[in-house]
């Protein structure tokens, strides 16, 4: 989940100005060094002031968007149990788990069963139900399919969740948003009221139009060495076989992989299958966790992501979901799982009481 912007510091030191061919005396060198030091101090002070001003503007703007302390989404007004907070299939990126790619539609995520359907004969990792079997959907899928099949066979074996997510992201960066029936159809045009906030929360030099991904935390300093190494190796191997979007680097892709893990939301569907896959959502990825949540993320029959209230919620209260199946795990198991994936130790009231 997104917590804090991971903005980088403005760096680089000015070189000491010297006239070409001129040799400075020790006194002149010391004076020049002092002058350089003062310039750098002023530059750092300006950068710090600029960063503070940007942060203040972010939170001032966020206050009108139901964002509260530490990026938590809070309620504006009293809410009743069962209220729909929002629903979207436009402003999020999502993929099915590998095990469901052949049994569920890649557009609406409905179980296909024995109904007529289309399966990609090339990548064999994307299927469409009869309702979503449209020429424009299959034509756009060719972009991500080409990326998927461009990597070595070894990368396409076993769990391909991360690979398929990256392929869809790159396809959007290079070829534009997919048809409206596919998740991610509006990622190139975020809502106007959030555009300014997300630009400021990001790194300030976004390399693609999908700015909201830059706003999501990588938690890089908290990730395990093994996972950071895996992200770096994946990104380097991917670059050897796939053309990157303009301006996108191996480091950017490694950051994206960490953002996926830190902010990924499972979308639960039915008791029969449980969670079918995971996503990054323009809004729901900013919901905080509690083992006693007052909201839940669900999905309707059309593949639309929904957020509903589970309890009555008072005005100004944080909107909280559970990142883990609470009922099937002990407090220790929940804490271990949350730390492994999201890198925080849960200290909610339920965990503290040992329930």
TrEMBL record:
GO terms for molecular function: zinc ion binding. Residues 120-324 form the SET domain. Residues 35-47 have a biased composition (Basic residues). Residues 10-20 have a biased composition (Acidic residues). It comes from the Eukaryota. Residues 1-47 are annotated as: Disordered. The keyword Cell membrane does not apply. Transmembrane segments: none annotated. Keywords: Metal-binding, Zinc, Zinc-finger. The keyword Magnesium does not apply. InterPro entries: H3K4_H4K5_MeTrfase (IPR050869), SET_dom (IPR001214), SET_dom_sf (IPR046341), Znf_ZZ (IPR000433). PANTHER family: HISTONE-LYSINE N-METHYLTRANSFERASE SMYD, SET DOMAIN-CONTAINING PROTEIN. This is SET domain-containing protein. It comes from Chloropicon roscoffensis.
């Amino acid at each position: 989940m997104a917590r804090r912007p991971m903005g980088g510091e403005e760096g680089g030191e000015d070189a000491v100005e010297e006239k070409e061919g001129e040799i400075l005396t020790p006194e002149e060198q010391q004076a020049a060094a002092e002058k350089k030091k003062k310039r750098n101090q002023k530059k750092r002070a300006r950068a710090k002031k600029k960063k503070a001003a940007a942060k203040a503007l972010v939170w001032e703007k966020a206050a009108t968007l139901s964002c509260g302390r530490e990026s938590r989404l809070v309620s504006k007004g009293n809410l009743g149990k069962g209220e729909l907070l929002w629903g979207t299939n436009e402003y999020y990126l999502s993929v099915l788990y590998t095990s469901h790619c052949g049994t569920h539609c890649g557009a609406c995520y409905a179980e296909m069963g024995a109904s007529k359907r289309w399966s990609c004969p090339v990548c064999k990792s994307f299927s469409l139900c009869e309702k979503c079997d449209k020429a424009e959907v299959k034509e756009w899928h060719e972009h991500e399919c080409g990326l998927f099949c461009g990597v070595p066979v070894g990368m396409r074996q076993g769990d391909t969740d991360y690979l398929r997510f990256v392929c869809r992201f790159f396809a959007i960066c290079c070829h534009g948003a997919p048809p409206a029936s596919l998740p991610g159809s509006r990622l190139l045009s975020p809502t106007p009221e959030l555009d300014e906030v997300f630009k400021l929360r990001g790194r300030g030099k976004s390399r693609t139009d999908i700015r909201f991904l830059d706003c999501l935390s990588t938690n890089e300093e908290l990730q395990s060495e093994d996972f950071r190494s895996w992200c770096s190796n994946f990104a380097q191997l991917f670059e050897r076989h796939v053309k990157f979007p303009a301006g996108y680097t191996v480091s950017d892709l490694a950051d994206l992989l960490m953002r996926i893990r830190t902010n990924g939301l499972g979308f639960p569907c039915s008791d029969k299958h449980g969670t079918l896959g995971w996503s990054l959502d323009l809004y729901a990825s900013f919901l905080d966790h509690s083992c006693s949540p007052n909201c839940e993320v669900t999905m309707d029959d059309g593949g639309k992501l929904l957020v509903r209230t589970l309890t009555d919620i008072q005005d100004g209260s944080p909107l909280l979901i559970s990142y883990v199946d609470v009922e099937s795990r002990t407090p220790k198991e929940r804490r271990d799982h949350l730390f492994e994936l999201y890198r925080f130790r849960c200290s909610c009231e339920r965990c503290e009481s040992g329930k």
